[in-house]
Amino acid sequence: MQIGPYTLTNPVALAPMAGVTDRPFRQLCRELGAGYVVTEMIAADPSLRDTRKSMWRSDFEGEATPVAVQIAGSDPEWLAEAARYNVELGAQIIDINMGCPVKKVCKKLAGSALLSNLTLVEQILDAVVTAVDVPITLKIRTGPHSENRNGVEVAKLAEQCGISALAVHGRTRAQRFRGEAEYETIRDICDNISIPVFANGDVTTARQARDVLAYTGADGLMVGRGAQGNPWIFRELNHFLQHGEELAPPDAEEVHTVMTEHLARLHRFYGERTGVRVARKHIGWYLKDRTGSKRVLYDLMRVQTAEEQFRLLEQHFLTKSKMAA
Ligand SMILES: Cc1cc2nc3c(=O)[nH]c(=O)nc-3n(C[C@H](O)[C@H](O)[C@H](O)COP(=O)(O)O)c2cc1C
User: Fold this and answer.
1) Half-sphere exposure of 322 toward its Cβ, with a 13 Å CA cutoff?
2) Percentage of the chain lying above the pLDDT 70 cut
3) Ligand 1 pocket check: which of 22, 94, 98, 100 to mutate, most ligand atoms within 8 Å of Cβ?
4) Fewer CB within 10 Å, N or C, the chain?
5) How far is it, in rounded angstroms, from Cα 79 to Cα 88?
6) Distance between CA atoms of 104 and 280, rounded to whole angstroms?
7) 141 CB less than 6 Å from ligand 1?
8) Which residue, judged by its Cα, is nearest atom 19 of ligand 1?
9) Measured in angstroms, how far is the CA atom of residue 15 from the centroid of ligand 1?
10) Of 130, 121, 50, residue with least CA distance to 89
11) What is the pLDDT at residue 109?
């Protein structure tokens, strides 16, 4: 799959998720096989630029190429300026968020709320494409609501405006995260434009990945929630897509090693205090479906230091390996 001058190593991407796909998680997913990753959305509002949150989100030091940065907002000039700013910081691709249904984003008419206003969509795309010399990509939903699935129209507009790739979440804005993703609109979009498309929504298994790609004709897949606590999903999906056979999930030893490394990176990236808090969320996802984890999860949600987090995890996995022996 190609985005502007960049050839992706494989077509399975990590979907942007605010509060999840920070630099440590993106790097980990890359190492475990994601062919492409995108930052969390970064507010285009210049008054938010110097907040700690925006600074963490605009930190792409040491990341693999291409560095794709997502911006969110509704003012074409602000978005153009945010694109310039992030390109100066090292962004190689700018992604525009028109897919987020969250109230905080939508009430300012950003994210997926924009899908109801095609004039503004066009102004935004024109402004950002003109502002910088890097490929611009767009992430959308299938439309504002089920009576107006205008995804094909938006996709055609995007192509005309010079967008280099499109990611489509198979839900309308009104659906938020309810119901199941539908792939018909994604298929129609793929039939109507010639820029690369990522299909997105509810893909959590290798077979689903194969089926969604085959059904929609999309060039790539974006996986969001399926990667939470499961960064191995990228190597599993890629293995299946390449060889048609399922790869065994990681054993307990590998889960422990990867978790430990992930936590250490979070502590370094955010500093210990914030890092320990951010790590709790990931620990919850890693352990939620693993048998015998209830008690340690309870304890892990309460510890305050990096050392305690590592110690409890180590103890947990040691007990597990003794029980397995
Ligand atoms: C916690 C969370 C945060 C998200 N943040 C963003 C975001 O910052 N930008 C964006 O375009 N989509 C965001 N999304 C939407 C995802 O990128 C993706 O489209 C959606 O989760 C559907 O894919 P999935 O079923 O594989 O999770 C977010 C989703 C979740 C669950």
Assistant:
1) 6
2) 96
3) 100
4) C
5) 14
6) 24
7) no
8) 169
9) 6
10) 50
11) 64
Question: From the CB of 143, is ligand 1 less than 6 Å away?
Answer: no
> Probe ligand 1: pick from 169, 212, 285, max atoms within 8 Å of CB?
169
Rounded Cα distance, 282 and 22, in Å: 12
CA distance 55 to 281: 20
Q: How far is CA 193 from the centre of its chain?
A: 23
CB atoms within 10 A of CB 46: 15
What's 48's DSSP letter? G
How many angstroms separate the CA atoms of 157 and 136, rounded?
13
Looking up tokens 């005309």 gives: 160
Going by pLDDT thresholds of 50, 70 and 90, the confidence category of residue 172 is confident
First to last CA, the chain: 44
- Burial classification of residue 148, based on how many CB atoms lie within 10 Å of its CB (0-12 exposed, 13-18 middle, 19 or more buried): middle
Q: What confidence category does residue 290 fall into, taking pLDDT thresholds of 50, 70 and 90? A: confident
| Span from the CA of 172 to the centroid of ligand 1 (angstroms) | 13
d(CA 197, CA 218): 5
CB contact at 8 A, 164 and 193: no
Q: Is 161 a catalytic residue?
A: no
The answer for residues whose C-beta is within 8 angstroms of residue 151's C-beta and 6 or more apart is 140, 141, 142, 143, 168, 185, 186, 188, 189
Range list of β-strands (E), the chain: 2-3, 6-7, 12-14, 36-43, 68-72, 93-98, 136-141, 165-169, 197-200, 220-223
> Measuring CA to CA, which residue among 117, 3, 141 is closest to residue 66?
3
